[in-house]
Design a protein that fits this description.
Blueprint: H1 3-9, H2 19-31, E1 35-42, E2 48-51, E3 57-58, H3 64-76, E4 85-88, H4 98-102, E5 108-111, H5 112-121, H6 125-135, H7 138-147, H8 159-167, H9 179-187, H10 191-203, E6 208-209, H11 211-223, H12 229-240, E7 259-265, E8 269-277, E9 287-295, H13 300-319
Antiparallel strand pairs: 1-2, 1-9, 3-6, 4-5, 7-8, 8-9
Helix pairs in contact: 2-13, 3-6, 3-7, 5-6
Length: about 350
């Protein structure tokens, strides 16, 4: 249960009655097509709610947030400098995002600060694995979570290893990995084996968290008791600039709403966790720590819609105002079919 954690963290105080919001969350979760869990904390009052929030879900790229916390902790301790140069070779490149597109064979040197930005703002997998290696590996990050009191946040593998595991591939030694090899090995796996591997992934406790634990991490980050002030603000600024997941936590909120968040995405997992800043004229101001994990839904759009609906319901409740009408999306122009 979340209550003892909040008491221990000093996050529980008198706050608004969330019973009506709880009921709405339960309806949204019940109607969602997939398995979903959510936890919400109003950071300033400590009021909280949870639906399936004590269940484990794969974090996917949400796990880059714990990696960033460990990295910034080591930077604040003087063990790593943000200006330190990191050279990436062919075996360091992972599928997804900027670095794999621009430098598919490696041969690039970036600073720690640049890699941290790519990891959080663009969810770049190459940057993430580089930072995970730099801080000492998954066991070091997981130990940091334990030291901070997060016993339900597991960090166990690199992005590269998880990619192979999700496809049912037994990879060669990491020194032999290349982007081309990864794609070829994954493409060779028969579909039934891929489906079985994905089922194993969603039931594997490695690299998982509960929504309650992640919401608690977000609440403590906002309160500033996970990192020194300058590093707290720097991480929140990067999260607020995140380019991923526009159809998730942010989808139904007013466009000027500040949402500092981190998404996670695989073929069977759609997540978004973040801090929503409530407007000054809200019925109840402050910040919402909201963690939503969804898996095994029929379509990405449906899983994203669940996240958006939960965030929208929370925003309406705390602001006391209806959500703005959804922005009209212009239909894409029809493409001419090629002549045969």
């Amino acid at each position: 249960m979340l209550l003892p954690w909040l008491l221990a963290a000093g996050l529980l105080a008198s706050g608004p009655d969330l019973s009506t919001l709880q009921e709405k969350f339960e309806r949204i979760i019940k109607s969602s097509r997939g398995e979903a869990g959510v936890a919400l904390i109003h950071v300033e009052s400590g009021a909280w709610l949870s639906v399936h929030g004590d269940q484990r879900f794969p974090m996917a790229s949400v796990y880059k947030l714990p990696i960033a916390l460990e990295l910034l902790t080591q930077v604040s301790q003087g063990k790593i400098e943000m200006t330190r140069a990191v050279t990436l070779g062919p075996s360091d490149i992972r599928p997804c995002c900027t670095l794999s597109r621009r430098r598919p064979r490696g041969g690039v040197t970036l600073t720690v600060g640049e890699l941290l930005e790519l990891m959080i703002v663009e969810s770049d997998n190459t940057a993430s694995d580089a930072m995970l290696k730099l801080v000492g590996g998954p066991a070091v990050v997981e130990q940091r979570m334990r030291v901070l009191g997060f016993n339900a946040i597991n960090v166990n593998r690199s992005e590269g290893q998880t990619l192979f595991d999700m496809a049912g591939v037994q990879p060669p030694p990491e020194s032999e990995w290349t982007l081309e090899l990864a794609r070829r090995l994954i493409d060779e796996v028969p579909l039934p084996e891929v489906i079985a591997a994905r089922a194993r992934y969603t039931s594997d406790p490695r690299d998982t968290a509960t929504p309650e634990e992640m919401a608690r991490l977000l609440g403590r980050l906002q309160l500033g008791n996970l990192l020194p002030p300058a590093y707290t603000q720097g991480l929140l600024d990067l999260m607020a600039r995140s380019k991923t997941g526009p159809q998730r936590l942010k989808a139904l909120l007013p466009r000027d709403t500040v949402v500092a968040h981190k998404t996670g995405t695989t073929d069977v997992v759609i997540n978004d966790v973040g801090l929503i800043t409530l407007p000054d004229d809200s019925a109840i101001g402050g910040h919402l720590a909201l963690a939503v994990f969804v898996m095994n839904g029929p379509r990405t759009a449906a899983m994203q819609r669940t996240i958006a609906q939960l965030a929208g319901a929370a925003f309406e409740f705390f602001t006391g105002k209806p959500l703005p009408p959804p922005a009209k999306v212009k239909p894409a122009p029809k493409k001419r079919r090629a002549r045969r």
